[in-house]
TrEMBL record:
Pathway: Amino-acid biosynthesis; L-arginine biosynthesis; L-ornithine and N-acetyl-L-glutamate from L-glutamate and N(2)-acetyl-L-ornithine (cyclic): step 1/1; Amino-acid biosynthesis; L-arginine biosynthesis; N(2)-acetyl-L-ornithine from L-glutamate: step 1/4
Protein known as: Arginine biosynthesis bifunctional protein ArgJ
Sorted UniProt keywords: Acyltransferase, Amino-acid biosynthesis, Arginine biosynthesis, Autocatalytic cleavage, Cytoplasm, Multifunctional enzyme, Transferase
Site (Involved in the stabilization of negative charge on the oxyanion by the formation of the oxyanion hole): T114, G115
Annotated GO MF terms: L-glutamate N-acetyltransferase activity; L-glutamate N-acetyltransferase activity, acting on acetyl-L-ornithine as donor
Reported function: Catalyzes two activities which are involved in the cyclic version of arginine biosynthesis: the synthesis of N-acetylglutamate from glutamate and acetyl-CoA as the acetyl donor, and of ornithine by transacetylation between N(2)-acetylornithine and glutamate.
Highest taxon above the source species: Bacteria
Chain positions recorded as substrate binding sites: T153, K179, T190, E276, N402, S407
Any Pfam family: ArgJ
Gene: argJ
């Protein structure tokens, strides 16, 4: 398993394009295309919010249907959420416009949108953008990176990664790009993640691998506690590597799962660390739990705690806030057995032992918590299970961004 340079164009047979269509932003690129030379098997996971954007409804139909996919059209700026039948009709128009210029099946065109809720899509600009994307697409790594930049909203940096791995003597590649900075909460988020692989794999195995992996990656991040209307993860496999077909329950399937975990965890952490207004990635690991579920619930409770997040913003080792968040998680544990550690590139420091504060150095704790990536480790001494969740600090910058998001 090797991490390589690139994103969605790293795998064989995939191309990407980007353009400035003026959907909402007037000073930057705002549309991206992912294209496969060969029809792809697809898998997808989507928001748990009852209010689902039109592209989510469209993509679910594509993923669960029989049509194969060759193209994903993504726009930033307008979410096409809470737009009724008109908004869903625009998805169909988008698919037909893409099919016409790309020569693909409209029933298999996938769509991603992110941005302001409630606005209708300016279809004249969107269709003009699709034509530009078709002309601009190529397989270069640079185009993959620029496509990742084009789907950003309040993100401060593009998010992409690619890995290679061996399947029965054949090199297979898996790459991906994502966007996400605000309206991020476990159970998927205002996040879009697009994954491409040249693996030959059954559709059933592809969906199983994705559905299982998001539980420990995208569903373990939180920025602000808001579960979005648009979050979508799509995984496309075109089989161009010509490996022996991957099916469930095999060594090759487990290898594919490991590669998928590397890609999804990296992208999930990138989103958590790039939270709106954030200055630090907060990683919380709970170990010594009696079950994986217990560890996950407690870890997520801590990363979702606003008081904990503001303490991290202030580089304050206010461990009481962490213990408090653990306590209201709904999971039972003995607070008088908890050990807590803070870690970062500046070192490691035990803060409490058996629920009681140690005589630690506040200066050292502040130094550790002043790094761009900080970690809290809580050992509850009940078993052998563990889980990790990711979040970020909460600063005034979050308010600045969201108080005038629509303007």
């Amino acid at each position: 398993m090797e991490i390589i340079k690139g994103g969605v164009t790293a795998a064989k047979g995939f191309e990407a394009g980007y353009t400035a269509a003026g959907i909402k932003y007037k000073d930057r690129t705002d549309m991206a295309l992912i294209y496969s030379k060969k029809p792809c098997k697809t898998a997808g996971t989507f928001t748990t919010n009852v209010v689902k954007a039109a592209p989510v409804q469209w993509d679910r139909k594509v993923v669960t249907g029989k049509a194969k996919s060759q193209a994903v059209i993504v726009n930033s700026g307008i979410a096409n959420a809470c737009t009724g039948a008109e908004g869903y009709g625009y998805c169909e128009e988008t698919a037909k416009a893409a099919a016409k210029v790309l020569g693909v099946n409209a029933d298999g065109v996938l769509i991603g949108s992110t941005g302001v809720i409630g606005m209708q899509m300016p279809m004249d600009r969107l269709k003009a953008g699709i034509a530009k994307l078709a002309e601009a697409k190529n397989s270069s790594l640079e185009n993959g990176t620029l496509a990742a930049k084009a789907i950003m909203t309040t993100d401060t940096r593009e998010k992409e990664i690619a890995v290679t791995f061996d399947i029965e003597g054949t090199t297979v590649t898996l790459g991906g790009m994502a966007k996400g900075s605000g309206m991020i909460h476990p159970n998927m988020c205002t996040m879009l993640s697009f994954l491409t692989t040249d693996a030959a794999i059954s559709k059933k195995a592809l969906q199983k691998a994705l559905s299982e992996d998001i539980k420990d990656t995208y569903n373990m991040i939180s920025v602000d506690g808001d579960t979005s209307t648009n979050d979508t993860v799509l995984l496309l496999a075109n089989g161009a590597a010509k490996n022996e077909k991957i099916v469930e329950g095999t060594k090759s399937f487990r290898t594919f799962q490991k590669a998928l975990r590397i890609v999804n965890e990296y992208l999930a952490k990138m989103m958590a660390g790039d939270g709106e207004g954030a200055t630090a990635l907060l990683e919380v690991t709970v170990r010594g739990a009696k079950s994986k579920k217990q560890a996950k619930v407690i870890a997520k409770s801590v990363v979702c705690s606003n008081l904990t997040k503001t303490a991290i913003a202030g580089h304050d080792a206010n461990w009481g806030r962490i213990l408090c968040a653990m306590g209201y998680s709904g999971e039972n544990f003995d607070p008088e057995k908890v050990d807590l550690f803070f870690e970062s590139a500046a070192g490691k420091l035990q803060i409490i032992e058996d629920g009681t504060a140690l005589d630690y150095s506040e200066e050292k704790a502040t130094e550790i918590l002043s790094q761009p990536e900080v970690r809290a480790v809580a050992d509850i001494k009940m078993g052998k299970a563990s889980a990790t969740a990711w979040g970020c600090d909460l600063t005034h910058g979050y308010i600045d961004i969201n108080a005038d998001y629509r303007s």
